[in-house]
Design a protein that fits this description.
There is one protein chain. The chain is an alpha/beta fold. The protein has two domains: about 220 residues, 3-Layer(aba) Sandwich (UDP-N-acetylmuramoyl-L-alanine:D-glutamate ligase), CATH 3.40.1190; about 200 residues, Heme Oxygenase, Chain A. About 55% of the residues lie in helices and about 10% in strands. The chain has 19 helices and eight strands. The chain has a six-stranded mixed sheet. Strands 1-2 form a two-stranded antiparallel sheet. A hairpin with a 2-residue loop joins strand 7 and strand 8. Helix 16 crosses helix 17. Bound molecules: adenosine-5'-diphosphate and the ligand Cc1ncc(COP(=O)(O)OP(=O)(O)O)c(N)n1. Adenosine-5'-diphosphate binds next to strand 7, helix 6 and helix 7. It is an enzyme of class 2 (transferase). Keywords: Kinase, Thiamine biosynthesis, Transferase. Pathway: Cofactor biosynthesis; thiamine diphosphate biosynthesis; 4-amino-2-methyl-5-diphosphomethylpyrimidine from 5-amino-1-(5-phospho-D-ribosyl)imidazole: step 3/3. Catalyzes the phosphorylation of hydroxymethylpyrimidine phosphate (HMP-P) to HMP-PP, and of HMP to HMP-P.
Length: about 450
């Protein structure tokens, strides 16, 4: 149910006029709703002036529902949406959750804007203490590839969720969308942290699909209906397609014993030695993807990933392995040959690369709960359940998604096949220590 507090003449370039509604009429709208409809949660956005704030404040005395207060002060375009920020103070004590952006947060505390994420969290904690509310700290206005958000109480951070930044100028309404989604999802679930996680996932998709709308010349709106009208996400479809393969990885003795720590160390070493051989080649393939990449962002990502493997993941292997001279197995060679054969195009190559991220992230996540300080393979389990690996996987998936969107029908099919084949190779790869120890000589 919606109550109009102000009419705005605005487009994607800015707000050219604001016509505030009479406080009395705002109250009439609010009363009309609460007289008839059960209120499960309230989201408050633009309030324009003190008279409207007084009307809303009075009405809140008559209802009992959680309140998400988005202290809307200035639009993305820089135009003012509230006459005087100080008048909001009277409403802040009524909020269950306050959702200021970085500048609004500073303004509510009468302080300079935070320069980094720890400062944002500190300001959020102090605002939460001042108003006995939760504060949703938002990092969308910070520089960097990550957009962190955290739910903060007077005691500190309750939950934190980060996502990659979409490279788009179409972010009109991100804060409004997040607070509305938070209130709505909370109404149906009753848990703020879980509501935030879901609201962020919804918003992430809406921002990701914003460019498809192509509205206006300034900051266009996010795509609220991406779930309904956008093409089905090809990555979801691919993931579904390897459902059985994923199940067969779960059923491998090797994986079960790796999880519970009963895996024979000789089997683990065999697997790691093969994996080290594979990763050396995989790093080269990532560097080749970087060379083929269509833009700087992708070029940097794949080159960075190659380096990360050479300097990070392979170190993990060396920490377990004695200096050895293992030869690649038939299974390892088959897999790297498949990667090499996918080099016909950038899109196909990164589709072939993807399972090595995605399946390891998936397994790492599920096996993480089996880890403990005495676990013989604890470092392996930590590596693939880490937040860094999660983020890298998310980025790799998105790179493939973007390439898929730009591909024609034939190329899309070759990409899908390359992805499925690599997934099949992954199953065989995990299984090889227990079964097919056929090694090829390096001669
Ligand atoms: N370019 C982007 N890509 C992904 N998420 C974004 C982007 N810009 C903002 N967000 C997310 O949108 C939400 C609103 O963030 P923020 O921009 O900080 O506040 P506001 O929109 O109120 O100014 C946050 O969850 C933030 O992480
Ligand atoms: C009527 C109205 N309410 C709120 C805003 C602010 O939207 P935007 O400028 O896009 O900022 P966020 O939603 O990202 O906080 C507006 N322009 N108009």
């Amino acid at each position: 149910m919606c109550v109009i507090t102000a009419l705005t003449a605005q487009n994607t370039l800015g707000v050219s006029a604001v016509q505030a509604i009479d406080g009395e009429f705002v109250l009439a709208q609010l009363n009309a709703i609460s007289a008839d409809v059960q209120i499960d949660a309230i989201k408050i956005g633009m309030l324009a002036n003190e008279e409207i704030i007084r009307a809303v404040n009075g009405w809140l005395d008559t209802v009992d529902a959680p309140v998400v207060l988005d202290p809307v002060m200035v639009a993305t375009s820089g135009d003012r949406l509230l006459e005087d920020e100080a008048v909001l103070d009277s409403l802040l004590d009524r909020a269950s959750v306050i959702t200021p952006n970085l500048l609004e947060l500073a303004s509510l505390l009468r302080e300079p804007a935070a320069a980094d994420w720890p400062q944002v969290l500190d300001q959020a904690r102090r605002l939460a203490a001042k108003h006995d509310a939760l504060v949703l700290a938002k990092g969308g206005h910070l520089a960097g590839d990550l957009c962190p958000d955290a739910l903060v109480s007077a005691q500190g951070v309750l939950a934190e969720f980060s996502n990659q930044r979409h490279h788009t100028k179409n972010t009109h309404g991100t804060g409004c969308t997040l607070s509305s989604a938070l209130a709505t999802i909370y109404a149906s679930g009753g848990d703020w942290a879980s509501a935030l996680e879901q609201a962020k996932a919804y918003l992430f998709r809406a921002i990701g699909a914003a460019d498809e709308l192509n509205v206006g010349r300034g900051h266009g709106p996010v795509n609220h209906f991406a779930h309904f009208f956008s093409e089905a996400d090809p990555m979801d479809q691919w993931w579904q397609q390897i459902h059985e393969l994923r199940g067969s990885i779960d059923n491998l003795e090797f994986i079960a014993q790796l999880a519970d720590g009963t895996l024979d160390p000789a089997d683990f070493e065999y697997y790691l030695a093969q994996d080290a051989l594979y990763l050396q080649r995989y790093a080269q393939v990532l560097a080749e993807a970087s060379a083929l990449a269509p833009d700087l962002d992708a070029q940097r990502f794949w080159a960075g990933s190659a380096r990360e493997i050479l300097e990070g993941e392979l170190q993990l292997h060396r920490s377990y392995l004695a200096e050895g001279t293992a030869n690649p197995s038939a299974i390892t060679l088959n897999y790297v040959n498949h990667l090499a054969a996918s080099k016909r195009s950038y899109a196909e190559l990164i589709a072939a690369i993807l399972p090595c991220y995605w399946l390891y992230q998936d397994i790492g996540k599920r096996l993480a709960s089996a880890n403990h300080p005495e676990h013989p393979y604890k470092q392996w389990l930590v590596t693939y359940a880490s937040e860094e690996f999660d983020l890298a996987t998310e980025r790799a998936i998105n790179m493939v998604r973007v390439a898929w969107k730009q591909a024609d029908v034939d190329l899309r099919e070759r990409m899908r096949l390359a992805f499925v084949r690599s997934s099949e190779h992954e199953v065989a790869f995990f299984d090889q220590a227990r079964r097919n120890r056929v090694e090829f000589s390096t001669a």
